[in-house]
Design a protein that fits this description.
Elements: H1 2-8, H2 12-32, H3 38-77, H4 87-103, H5 105-109, H6 113-120, H7 128-162
Helix pairs in contact: 4-7
Amino acid sequence: MAWFKRVYGANPLHLLALLGCFALAGAAVLALVPNPSAVTIAIWFAAAVIGHDLVLYPLYALADRSLVLARWARRRVSSRPVTVAATNHLRLPVLGSALLGLVWFPTISGGGADVLAFAAGLPPTVDYVSRWLLVTAALFLASAVVYAIRLGRSAVRERTSAL
């Protein structure tokens, strides 16, 4: 097996898993080919890839980089070291809110009100934007509480180690 790893570069199970993924993707493509909306699905997929990779990824990479640079700048200015980074306490609620907003966008925007009324029996008068904002606020509040607890525990640890 050493010769295989030297030639291929990874474990044979990696090759097997990769071949399985290609087979699954091929089966999905073959299932879509006779479908008349396959071209529409392919256009949507291409637009999603282009929209994410060329537009959204640079934007949230820039936002994340600004968080990391702010942490670095605080470390350079302050004499106290950063014991608990706030970066992940901001990343998680932003990611959760963005994911909920993306998944539920048709309902939040009101575009799927008729379908929702038919499927769930809920009236289209419910304000889903305010509910999404409340969930977003709850995510940030929970993250802030966890951050405050971690800061408190870190301060207690510093005091006990200083004694």
